[in-house]
Amino acid sequence: MSSAKIRVALVGLEFGAEFAPIYLHHPDVERLIICDLDDSRVQHVGDRFDVAARTTDLDAILRSDEWDAVHLVTPVTMHAAHTLAVLEAGKHCTCTIPMALEIEDLRGIIATQRRVGKNYMMMETAVYTREFLYVNELYKQGAFGRLTFLRGAHLQDMEGWPDYWRGFPPHKHITHALAPLLALTGTRATKVHCIGSGQLREELQRPYNNPFPLETAIFRLAVCRRERSFGLRERSAVVWVRCPAGAACPRRASGGRKRSRMHATRSGCTRPLLLR
Q1: How far is CA 112 from CA 54, 76, 86, 124, in A?
Q2: Which of 8, 123, 135, 184 is 20 to 30 A from 50, comparing alpha carbons?
Q3: CATH top class, domain 127-275
Q4: Counting beta carbons within 10 angstroms of the beta carbon of residue 224, is it exposed (0 to 12), middle (13 to 18) or buried (19 or more)?
Q5: Which DSSP helix (H) or strand (E) runs through 11?
Q6: Percent share of the chain, pLDDT over 70
Q7: Confidence at residue 260, expressed as pLDDT on a 0 to 100 scale
Q8: What's the pLDDT tens digit per position in 61-117?
Q9: Positions of E strands within 49-182
Q10: Which CATH class is domain 6-123?
Q11: Ramachandran bin of 63, using left for φ above 0, alpha for ψ from -120 to 50, beta for the remaining angles
Q12: In the chain, where does the domain assigned CATH 3.40.50.720 lie?
């Protein structure tokens, strides 16, 4: 394994500013540049964390040989285009969720990553929470026995968020609820049945032609790698729900703590549940 340090560009500083001190203090990062279209935000974040390299020009970063990797924390509607541009520029790419909004874009990113040979990572944070890491360790120790059913929920009030989140289809933002269950079992989904319920306010339906504030799905999973030693063809189900736009998250309303600083920043919470 190479011991060389990497040079990282952090692009999108509204929520992305939270990552600046992580990169600045990471032992494997040599340099950091921050980037945002809003120059005042760039200067504010740069001054706050003492970041010398600053720009408002993503294209300049992609043209430069100074940077090895780009972390995208840009609006969700731009994830696919930005990711493809980063990979085509010959740089490693990591991007906040969701990876893309359309199946064709997902396939395009995968094909491009394989062709250019650079690393890509979707930054799903729920699999790095203390809660998940604790449950994952218990599972590895055999504390749960054989899993036959899993359930995940992601409840989020998105009022007051940037406009591109208004009326966002719930299951295009599914990874906080689903990823921990797939990571825990080391498997993938093979079949899904999904239904929507409720009705968004009319003005919230327009951006994505989506009427539903809440969606629920049942997934069939492939053979669980951790259960193969039992000789079983494991089948698990996942149910995922989301609060209606404008509704307070029940967990927060009842006084429950948010899962992490990252989720606190985004005003949401994730609650994976395991049932034997």
Answers
A1: 28, 19, 10, 20
A2: 123
A3: alpha beta
A4: buried
A5: strand 6-11
A6: 80
A7: 31
A8: 999 999 999 999 999 999 999 999 999 999 999 999 999 999 999 999 999 999 999
A9: 53-55, 69-72, 92-96, 120-123, 149-156
A10: alpha beta
A11: alpha
A12: 6-123
